[in-house]
Every structure is written in C-alpha cells, then in structure tokens.
Amino acid sequence: MTTTETAAAEPALHTITLTVNGTRHTRTVEPRELLVYFVREQLGLTGTHVGCDTSQCGACTILLDGIAVKSCTILAVQADGAEIKTIEAYAEPDGTLHPIQQAFWEEHALQCGYCTPGMIIAIDQLIRDNPNPSDSEVRHGIEGNLCRCTGYQNIVKAAISAAAKIRGDAPFEKPEDELMAETH
Amino acid sequence: MYPAKFAYVAPKSIDEALTLLEHGNGEAKLMAGGHSLLPLMKLRLAQPATLIDIARIPGLGFIEPAADGSAVRIGATVTYRQVQLSDVVKAHLPVVAETMSLVGDQQVRARGTLVGGLAHADPSGDMPAVVLALGATLVARGLQGSREIDVDEFFVDMLTTSLAENELITEVRIRKPGPRSGAAYLKFDQPASHYALTGVCAVITLSEDGKTISAARLGITGVGPKAYRPMRVEAALLGVDPTDEKPVEAASAGAAEGVDVQGDIHASPPYRAHLARVFTRRAVLEAARRATA
Questions:
Q1: What CATH number was assigned to the domain covering residues B63-175?
Q2: Which range marks the domain in which residue A56 is found?
Q3: Residue A181 in this model has a pLDDT that exceeds 60
Q4: Is the same domain home to A55 and A105?
C-alpha cells in the first residue's frame, strides 16, 4: 500500500488493490471509505446493498477472503490485498443460477429482494460451515440478516433445500420441534 | 454513514504500533477487527485522529495451550470465528467455544476479535463475564515492556479498563477450570441486537466426594456498567449441595447487590436485577450438573 500526501491536515489517501469477483482493481481511497461504498460506488457493483449501515441487517454481506462479512463495518483500506466475492459472481456467466439462488427462486424466498444478496451469501457461509443444517441451525445461522417481507419461513426452506442440492442429497426433513427449541 | 476523517496506519510490528500510539497523544486508537470501534466512529461517538490497524502485525494470531497447561493463550488478532472453530478451545475451554455461538452473528464473529472485545469493555458483551468466571490474565505491552493484568483488575467502568493509553494487549490467557469443575454461560438477550440483558457465567468446583460446592467463580454482564464478579454469591455458595435448588437460589439473591444496575428501553433496573438473580441460579445449577457429568 502506498500513501499519497495531500493538503496539510488532510489525512493521507491510500492506494489499495483488491481482487473483486476475479478482477484486480487498484484505486485511491480516503481511510474512512467503507468497503460497501467502495464496492458499490467505485466499482459499480450495486448488488451489495446498504440496509441499516450499523452492522445489524446483513444486506451488505460479501465474502472477504472466502468468509462472509458485513462490508458496512470494514474500511476499504483494511481489505487491501484481499479477494472479494459479491452477489454478482454467484450465477454462472451464462446465467445459470447458483444452487442457493435457484432454491430462493423455487421456494419463493424473496419478496422485495433487498435482503436477498446478503441472505444468499450468509447462507453460502452457513452451508460451507455446516453442510446439513437443521431448521434451527439455519435460523441461528442467519440471525445477522434481517428480512422484513418473508417472515423467514421460505428463506429457511430455501437454505435447507439448497444445502441438500449442494450435498447431492434429497432434502432433509427436520423435526418441527427444533424450531421452538432455540430462542433465536 | 461515514466516520469523521482520520489517518490510517497499518504497522507491521508491535513496537511500531506502540510508537504510533505514543505519538498519537491520546488521539490514536488501536483496531483489530473494528467491530466495536467502527460502529462508534460511524455514529461519531468516537473520532480518533489516527487509527492504528494491528491486524497486519504478524505473530498475534495464535491459539495455544500455555506451557504449564493451566490456561489457553489467545492472541490479539484472533477472531471470534477462529476461537469458535479452534480444537484447542473446544478441548480445554468448552464453555468459551459454546459462548462463541452467542456472540453477535456469524459475520460479526468473522471480523470481531476476542481480545478487542475485552479491551472495548462493553457492559453487555458476553466474553467479559466468561473470562471473569474462568479467571484470566491479560498481557499488556508498552514501549517500556510487558505487564500482566489479572482480569479481576481489568474492567474499571463502562467502556473503561485498566489498560494504559499507551499500551496494547498482546494476548489473553484464559485459565482452564480444575478437576471436578463445570462451567456454563447462560444469557437472556435482547432479541434484535442479541446483546445480553443479563448474562451469567458460573464455574463451579465440587468437593472430593462430589456432594458440595468447594469453589465458585461467577461473572455477570449486561446488568451493571461493567461486567463483575458477585463476590457475596460466590462466598454463599461454598458448602452448598448443588443439586438442592433452594440454597442455590438463596445464594443467588445477592447477584446484583451493591451494583449500579442499568436501565434502558429494553429492561428497567429492577427487571435486570431480577434477571441477574434468576440467571445466576440457573447458571450455577447447570455448571454443577456439568461438574458431575
């Protein structure tokens, strides 16, 4: 990382290089530039959303070096040198949906769609950590993502169906009482 | 929301970070994962002139048993996620591994650090209660050298610790419970934020015959301006039959005694004090059950 001196009393700008969805980008940023705005406004990848902007809602979730994070609570300079994957890179170039996207389609897991990119990436993380999650494990796993439309039912169904597809199994039937066993 | 302007530096060594901190004249802040500090900066509740990002300092990402086997050492840049997935933590400090799933959410745990969370000293953070109950030592490094701070001396007040302005915590050493011990952390959380309205960690050690409590350490968070040990409860539990709910309940009555119990829109002070008593009883009973299991 190199720094560029600007007018006196102004903090130095930083030149950073990130690989986003397989493409390297070098840009000069203010230290206070948040990663989510870097991705949306500097790179034009507006699939990553800003919801609450207070690290609660998860609409800004992206993969940073392969791990789901909230990009509204990371400075772009902190991500210098990192690899980032956003929702734009989930479908194949020919338009074939990622299994989680396909499951969202099939299970009607979105209404307005605002939370969906973050939900899909959070579920991607959840399934990679736990390939066969129960209903309650999905609910616990997506506690950092808020949806104000669906009531979560179909999102949970989609996550479980996507996990089964990714494993190559038939969907796993989970006991309903597990749903009540956890408080969140 | 943008933070106020600040200069950003990412030192490559502890000494470089400490020099920057010293030159910051109190206007510089250390950051590892930034998941406590950046939200405050975005709300302009914190406006440091310089942000010192210690995440790129090599050698602070360790999780390992202490040489004498009595504790687990966790370095300053270790995230909650790394703690949660650590086989060392699962084997030696199962209550810490278990608590991880209650801290924030999976994305927050991917960035937030355990040591950073302790340094932030949020009055409703989970881990302050857990480290108080288990017992721990924080290693603070300054330009003049290192010192060890017992966790009992660490939390001073809301968002305030005994760490000096020019010091950096390099690691926390969390003590392993001894034989015939069990530990449990139980939390009553605010359902939107998942912050603890009350969280109680109990570490209970049984007598050799397993019939009475021979040692008890507790940590309570979410109730007062800082996490604390309810010393009178700990004393009152000694000699008690841990399978008998009545004396445990009686001992737990002092869980919020002498504490400046906080209130907010989610829970009034009397309600929080009530939760502290109830969760103390439950945590003690559960820890004792685990000690016999």
A1: 3.30.465.10
A2: 2-89
A3: no
A4: no
Q: Are B152 and B138 in contact (CB under 8 A)?
A: no
B4 contact residues in A (CB cutoff 8 A): 32
Contact B105 A144 (CB under 8 A): yes
Does ipTM top 0.90? yes
Cβ atoms A103, A165 nearer than 8 A: yes
pLDDT category of residue B136 using cuts at 50, 70 and 90: very high
Phi, then psi, of A90 in degrees rounded to 5? -80, -45
Structure tokens at B280: 């103390």
Cα gap A39→A22, rounded to integer Å: 14
A113 touches chain B (CB under 8 A): no
Q: For the domain B181-292, what is the CATH code? A: 3.30.390.50
pLDDT digits (tens, 9 = 90+) for A72-126: 999 999 999 999 999 999 999 999 999 999 999 999 999 999 999 999 999 999 9
As given in the structure block, the two tokens for residue A90 are: 């989930």
Tell me the CATH number of domain B7-56, given options 3.40.50.720, 3.90.1150.10, 3.30.43.10, 3.30.360.10: 3.30.43.10
**How many separate domains does chain A show?**
2
Instruction: Please state, rounded to an integer, the average pLDDT across all residues of chain B.
Output: 97
